[in-house]
Amino acid sequence: MKKLNISTILASAIHESKNQVGTLLYQLQGLKDTTESNDPNRTKIVLIEESLKKLNDEWVEYLYLYRLASNGYDLHVDTFSIDEFLDDQVFALQPSANAKNLVLDYHCDTSLTGSFDERLMTAVVSTAVYNAFRFAKSKIILSARQEKEFLVISVEDDGKGFVHIEEQPEDIFEVNTGLGLYFAELSASAHVVDEVCGFIKKESSLSLGGASLTVYLPQASEEPFVEHY
Predict the structure, then answer these.
(1) Which ranges in 40-117 belong to alpha helices (H)?
(2) Whole-angstrom Cα distance, residue 61 to residue 191?
(3) Residues facing residue 106 across a β-bridge
(4) Higher pLDDT, 81 or 30
C-alpha cells in the first residue's frame, strides 16, 4: 500500500473545509438579505457571518502557509498602486470592524507604488487586521511608505501591544498570533530582489500606543535611462 503524505492530506482537508465555509457564507448572505434591518436577529447573523469570513481567511492562510513551507507556491509579483491596495483591504474588512465598533482606516502617499504578490499580501494584511480586532480599543490604522529599497506596510492598533513571552497565557492558542506571524514572515521572505529578502518587524506603535506589525518588501531599483547614440 502506498504511503500517504499527511501534509498533502491536511492541505486537501483544509481546501474542502474552506469550500464548505464558502457555501455557508453564500447561504447566510441569502438569509441576511431576507431579514429586515430592524430584526434583532440580524445582528447575530452579521456576527456569525464575520466569524465565518475570518475562518475562511484563516483557511486561505493555512493553504498558503503549506505551499510556502513546502516550496510549492509560485510567486506572482506585479506592480500596484498602494493607495488602491490599502483601500481594497479596508473595504473588505470594514464590515468586521463595524461589527466590533472599531475604526479601520489607512493612509499613504497616493502616488506610492510597489511590487509584490497581491494574494500573499492580502492574506498577510487581513490576518494582521483580524488579530488587531481582538485587542484594539477603538481603532486600527494601515499605512505604507517607501523606505530606501523597501516598500513598508504597517498594521497598527491602540490595544495593549504585543506581550512578552513570560506574560503570555499558558495556552498559547489563546493568543493565536504565532502562526500568523510565521505566515507573515514566510510571505515577506518569499519576496526577493537582488538577493535581498523581505522581513517583518513586531514592535510597539508610536502613533497609537498598541501593537505594530510591519512588513518590509524589497523593491527593484529603477535603472536610470541612458540614451545611446
Answers:
(1) 40-69, 82-99
(2) 17
(3) 142
(4) 81
Are 153 and 217 spatial neighbours (Cβ–Cβ below 8 Å)?
yes
Say how many CA atoms lie within 13 Å of 2 toward its Cβ.
Answer: 3
| Pairwise CA distance, residues 41 & 51, whole Å | 16
Per the structure block, which three cell numbers stand in for 14? 483544509
- Could you tell me which of 98, 123, 101, 143 has the C-alpha nearest to residue 183? 123
| pLDDT number for residue 168 | 45
Angle at 142 between CA 140 and CA 145, to 5 degrees: 150
pLDDT at site 169 = 42
CA distance 176 to 171: 10
Average pLDDT, the chain: 81
Output the CA–CA distances (angstroms, integers) from residue 170 to 132, 159, 166, 167, in the order listed: 21, 21, 9, 9
